[in-house]
Amino acid sequence: MRDVYVVGAGLTPVGNHWRLGIRDLAVQASIKAMEAADNPKIDYIVVANALSGIVDGQENLGALISDYLGMIGTPSLKVEAAGASGAAAAVTAAGLIKSGMADNVLLVGVEKMTDYTALEDSNMALSTSIEREYEAFFGATLESLHAMVMRSYMRKYNVEEEAFAAVPVLMHEHASTNPYAQFKFKLKRESYMRSPYLAEPLKLLDAPSIGDGAAAVILSVSPNSPGGAVRVSSWGQATDHVSLYMRKSVTEFPAVRLAVKRALERADLKLSDISFYKIHDSSSVAALIEIEEMGLTERGKAIELVDSEDSRRNGSTPINPDGGLKARGHPLGATGVYQIAETYLQLTDKAEGTQVSGARRALLLSAGGLASNVVVHVLERV
User: Fold this and answer.
1) Could you tell me if residue 302 is left (phi over 0), alpha (psi between -120 and 50 degrees) or otherwise beta?
2) Within 10 Å of residue 336's Cβ, how many Cβ atoms?
3) Reduced 3-state DSSP string for 259-308
4) What is the rounded distance in angstroms from the CA atom of residue 95 to the CA atom of residue 91?
5) Burial 93-124 (b: 16+ CB within 10 A, else e)
6) Helix or strand or coil: residue 175?
7) What is the 8-class DSSP label of residue 154?
8) pTM value surpassing 0.85
9) Is residue 343 helix, strand or coil?
């Protein structure tokens, strides 16, 4: 099958875009990506989104965005996989190229989340990614399930609340120099400890905030691009029980382990071949479990890595050099495309303010729900 390359990227800053609608954000990012790739002929548009039908009252995003891009007639569709929507859409877009159905695909992820301002409404929308009948119906939210996992992790590995500060501190440190980040400031551990609980022991600063944003990339069969090209070396995907109560262990994410294994094996690579990692830090404890499932540390030891210089941009194992979901922002369905766009900039030495020096390969992990649908990509410098 044919190789797939990322040949252009466009991003909007993550934040509260009160004056921009979902189509405005998507169009802005798409135009930037197409211009960066020297405006190739687009054969297909793939849109990643998770909540537009609930929050914005707008579905049929494929047709909507092709319309407002002035690309009437171009085939277009939407892909949804909760927080993994962007990465799942990338699998779809790459598949179109590998199969020969398209030579150039515009992949755009977009989410407009701030149209829901009430906490209750936001929780309801986000809880569509968990089991509706037997979890959400009885009052469980995505955050409360993260809190249960966090409590279990603390007991199992004898971890104190304060230790989890290592994750948001790292993410804010990296985001502080990212021009597209939602929160461009560093965070002190004292501030973390003073933050209120969302669901004890999960604190406000353990989780990403609501935000709007769009990211777009051009996937192509050809590596010829004025801005450089990055190869999509492989991807892997796996699923788990959607319901937390059905799992054998709430402190393990086997879908992460399986998806990483599949992606590395398909690329014939090892973890030691990876220059930096993008993880799906939908909570501090989720970030730690993902690091352990990847095989970067033993179980219960991820905090030591995150708290060390190794996890920094200039370290041996850089993690989320752009700030991750916590600080760059988490516009749900767009996050996976942000990861790909940011990695393209990294591997073509254009990551303003966040560059990992000498990076050759990156592993990108995106998770829907509580790691019930996990997609992993490996991208490589050409």
Assistant:
1) alpha
2) 33
3) HHHHHHHHHCCCHHHCCEEECCCCCHHHHHHHHHHHCCCCCCCHHHHHCC
4) 6
5) bbbbbeeeebbbbbbbbbbbbbbbeeeeebbe
6) helix
7) H
8) yes
9) helix
Per-residue pLDDT of the chain (382 residues; tens, 9 = 90+): 899 999 999 999 999 999 999 999 999 999 999 999 999 999 999 999 999 999 999 999 999 999 999 999 999 999 999 999 999 999 999 999 999 999 999 999 999 998 766 555 667 777 888 898 888 888 889 999 999 999 999 999 999 999 999 999 999 999 999 999 999 999 999 999 999 999 999 999 999 999 999 999 999 999 999 999 999 999 999 999 999 999 999 999 999 999 999 999 999 999 999 999 999 999 999 999 999 999 999 999 999 999 999 999 999 999 999 999 999 999 999 999 999 999 999 999 999 999 999 999 999 999 999 999 999 999 999 9
Domains in the chain, CATH or no CATH each? 5-116+210-220 (3.40.47.10)
